[in-house]
């Protein structure tokens, strides 16, 4: 009788993890995660998953030896993280209970205690990448691209060597959820640093798309689209797009630099504002085609039969991307480019060719598990990442010290050239952005656009 070596490895692993699972929380978590990866993973990695599981089961056993049956979840998280790094699929990752809670808050549109500011870690502080309209942060005068250099008395962001400082995005969110005022030091280009206390209110956990105006005469609409996680993402985007058209926009910029993805149906629907979209997903034993038409989900048959010019926005279009553009946001960008958009910024994260489901884990966290591969309507695999048509990295120093958004500048220049070719009005590269409600500079115009009262697959981390 011939024996299958891989089958024997799986049996050996099952025996080892079964024995360990009776001994500690760590082995419970490790066993649940590796079983999911072994049996349900369907991404692009070609790594031998059974061999990886066996290798790291031995690592876990060694690290748990001093603790015995008290070996904790944290030990397993570290080992599973190392295994998944070697798997080589950044879409498959393990989130702890706090990360799982944050994911649930956004995807379920929960109301939580928030300032209304969303931040990312950069050198020198926490960069504010979105401010919810009507939030305490907006009322305190916080603007997009302000820099928080200190939070709750702690240095924030990264130091000059790129090392994380005490206050990061997770720490900021934890402080928000307590509901207590948060003391911060705010830095803005052209103004002295100032200390203020950010209060919180019960707000939606998800961020909304916002509309701003840029370029000469304020005729270029800039829609910052922060997430596709919530179930109303495409609806809110379509609303902002309608406001841009009503405001007389001659060109459009969609900013996805800090959009980590979300619901596949939402990003397909949103991307179809620029032309019909068909997205094929394939998983173990099956598949499904998603369709989008004029900014809404549609039957694939209708999307396939639609004319290319069936759209909501027919004018010059640029999409801003960067390393924070991931998953569903990469899918959106791919289809916007097919519809004629110029892509500006930096290379995207590199998980645009797959999708995930979130598997609950014994510790209360979730495993983001790649379960589908993505294809075009022509049966071609979607690219993992997108390289911009115009390379224009976001210069954080210029942004925070001079108030210059170098990526937006490049997009406005590209749109100006595109608009000239199309015989339409466009910008000349000026990067002054005026937010709704702000005092416009001479070269810009702002519209106090009305906003609605309220109303997955891959998603990036907050």
Could you explain the architecture of this structure?
Residues 1-23 form the signal peptide. Residues 430-439 have a biased composition (Low complexity). InterPro entries: ClpP/crotonase-like_dom_sf, PDZ, PDZ_sf, Tail-specific_protease. Residues 103-155 form the PDZ domain. The chain is α+β, with helices and mostly antiparallel strands. The chain folds into three domains: 5-89; 111-204, PDZ domain (Pdz3 Domain); 210-435, 2-enoyl-CoA Hydratase, Chain A, domain 1 (Alpha-Beta Complex). The chain has helices at 5-21, 25-40, 49-64, 73-87, 97-107, 136-139, 169-178, 233-246, 264-271, 300-305, 328-338, 396-402, 406-422; strands at 93-95, 111-114, 117-122, 125-131, 147-151, 154-155, 182-188, 191-198, 201-204, 210-214, 220-224, 251-255, 277-283, 286-293, 296-298, 317-321, 342-345, 354-360, 366-375, 390-391, 433-435. The protein has a seven-stranded mixed β-sheet with strand order 20-17-16-12-11-10-21, with helices on both faces. Strands 1, 13, 14, 15, 18 and 19 form a six-stranded antiparallel β-sheet that branches. A hairpin with a 5-residue loop joins strand 10 (210-214) and strand 11 (220-224). The radius of gyration is 23 Å and the shape is globular.
């Amino acid at each position: 009788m011939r024996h299958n070596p891989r089958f024997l490895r799986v049996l050996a692993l099952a025996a080892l993890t079964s024995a360990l699972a009776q001994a500690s929380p760590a082995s419970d978590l490790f066993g649940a995660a590796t079983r999911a990866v072994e049996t349900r993973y369907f991404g692009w990695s070609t790594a031998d998953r059974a061999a990886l599981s066996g290798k790291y089961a031995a690592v876990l056993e060694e690290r748990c030896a001093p603790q015995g049956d008290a070996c904790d979840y944290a030990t397993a998280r570290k080992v599973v993280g190392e295994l998944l790094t070697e798997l080589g699929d950044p879409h498959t990752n393990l989130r702890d209970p706090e990360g799982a809670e944050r994911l649930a808050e956004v995807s379920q549109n929960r109301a939580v205690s928030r300032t209304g500011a969303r931040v990312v870690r950069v050198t020198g502080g926490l960069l504010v990448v979105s401010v919810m309209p009507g939030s305490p942060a907006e009322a305190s005068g916080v603007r997009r691209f302000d820099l928080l250099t200190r939070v709750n008395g702690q240095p924030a962001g990264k130091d000059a060597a790129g090392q994380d400082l005490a206050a990061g995005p997770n720490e900021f969110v934890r402080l928000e959820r307590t509901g207590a005022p948060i003391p911060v030091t705010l830095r803005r280009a052209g103004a002295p640093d100032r200390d203020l206390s950010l209060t919180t209110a019960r707000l939606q956990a998800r961020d909304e798309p916002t509309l701003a105006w840029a370029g000469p005469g304020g005729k270029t609409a800039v829609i910052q689209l922060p997430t596709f996680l919530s179930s109303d993402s495409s609806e809110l985007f379509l609303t902002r797009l309608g406001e841009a058209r009503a405001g007389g926009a001659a060109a459009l910029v969609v900013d996805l630099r800090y959009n980590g993805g979300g619901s596949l149906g939402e990003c397909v629907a949103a991307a179809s504002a620029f032309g019909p979209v068909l997205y094929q997903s394939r998983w173990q034993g099956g598949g499904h085609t998603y369709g989008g038409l004029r900014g809404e989900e549609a039957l694939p048959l209708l999307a396939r039969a639609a004319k290319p010019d069936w759209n909501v926005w027919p004018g010059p279009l640029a999409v801003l991307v960067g390393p924070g553009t991931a998953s569903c946001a990469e899918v959106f960008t791919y289809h916007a480019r097919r519809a004629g958009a110029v892509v500006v910024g930096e290379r995207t994260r590199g998980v645009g060719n797959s999708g995930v489901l979130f598997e609950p884990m014994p510790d209360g966290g979730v495993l983001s598990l790649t379960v589908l591969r993505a294809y075009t309507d022509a049966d071609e695999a979607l690219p993992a990442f997108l390289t911009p048509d115009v390379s224009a990295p976001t210069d954080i120093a210029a942004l925070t010290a001079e108030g210059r958004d170098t990526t937006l500048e490049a997009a406005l220049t590209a749109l100006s050239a595109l608009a000239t070719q199309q015989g339409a009005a466009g910008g000349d590269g000026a990067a002054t952005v005026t937010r709704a409600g702000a005092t416009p500079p001479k070269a810009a115009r702002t519209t106090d656009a009305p906003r609605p009262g309220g109303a997955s697959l891959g998603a990036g981390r907050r």
